[in-house]
Write a structure and sequence with these properties.
alpha+beta; Glutaredoxin; Glutathione S-transferase Yfyf (Class Pi), Chain A, domain 2; 2 domains; 4-stranded mixed beta sheet; 11 helices; 4 strands; about 5% strand; globular; GST_C_Tau
Length: about 240
């Protein structure tokens, strides 16, 4: 991968369809860091992945100077701290503002990403509908977060920050949500600020460089749904 700054021996183990991996790619892209990307086959996990993340055996894993860092939010924070002074800061300098950013990142993980995963893995339509309700409630809360205080283009303020990166990793899936499930997740009529944020985020050069193709994500999502449905029928 290209970048304006030396990555100091950075290697990213990832998988194309993972929104968590995309988060890390976004952070590296925003910082202008060069890195080696290793695409992982999660059906046949490599020795590198298993030795780098023996606890979860999952992507993403960032290897810096031979040392692995795991879990996407931890990795994004590590990139911001390890490469302070290179590219824009992602977490605010003010301790209170930093705590607010971490709060919303945790909210996204717990209230949006977790039920989103259940939507793909639901065994019944009732389960899927309940998870959808939780997702839409989370989207409404994020719309409210953008309304707080003065109008601003990003969760990070005038420039992209940590929360933008955490949420931004999933925008290709958000754009493909209608094709996958027959409804808009981020609806401009219901959540105009969040919809405008998504379009603005997608226009960033750093985002254009790494965000997944929406059509390809839709095909990947359909494959996951079919695979989980087949596993449910066999159970």
């Amino acid at each position: 991968m290209g970048g304006e700054e030396g990555g100091d021996g950075l290697k990213l183990i990832g998988q194309y369809g993972s929104a968590f991996v995309t988060r890390v790619k976004l952070a590296l892209s925003l910082k202008g860091l060069s890195y080696e990307y290793v695409e992982e086959d999660l059906r046949n996990k490599s020795a590198l992945l298993l030795s780098s993340n023996p606890v979860h055996k999952a992507v993403p894993v960032l290897i810096h100077r031979g040392k692995p860092i795991c879990e996407s939010q931890v990795i994004v924070q590590y990139i911001d701290e390890a490469f302070a002074g290179i590219g824009p800061p992602l977490l605010p300098a003010d301790p209170y503002e930093r705590s607010v950013a971490r709060f919303w990142a945790a909210f996204i993980e717990d209230k949006l990403v977790s039920p989103w995963d259940r939507v793909f893995r639901a065994k019944t339509e009732d389960e899927r509908e309940e998870a959808m309700k939780q997702m839409l409630a989370a989207v409404d809360a994020l719309e409210g977060a953008l309304k707080e205080g003065r109008p601003r283009p990003f969760f990070g303020g005038d420039s992209v920050g940590y929360v933008d990166v955490v949420l931004g990793g999933a925008v290709s899936y958000a754009k493909g949500h209608d094709a996958l499930f027959g409804s808009e997740l981020i609806d401009a009529a219901k959540t105009p600020l969040l919809a405008a944020w998504m379009e603005r985020f997608c226009e960033l050069d750093a985002a254009k460089a790494v965000l997944q193709d929406v059509d390809r994500v839709v095909q990947y999502g359909k494959m996951l749904i079919a695979k989980n449905a087949a596993a449910t029928r066999q159970a």
